[in-house]
Design brief:
22% strand; two-stranded antiparallel sheet; 94 residues; mainly beta
Length: 94
Amino acid sequence: MPIYEYKCENGHVFDIMQKMSEDPLKTCVECGAPVKKLMHPVSISFKGSGFYSTDYSNGKKKTEPAKNGASESNSGSETGKKTENASGKKSKED
């Protein structure tokens, strides 16, 4: 059963363990004033194998250094490729 946190108009904050099928409380257990259910962000913690990019690695480096400046010559020849700009239209880079 989950624990729900409530806060009344007079500032009392309290926790109640309720079934999910039960109706939410309408009055404070201390003073009888109307209450609201408080919502909090949920934290998630992934533990174990399979949750990290290193778990899927095949053991090889993804980017190996190029020999004799080969990467520099490749980058110069790729300037003529078509690219998509922010508006979604294709334009040719020069």
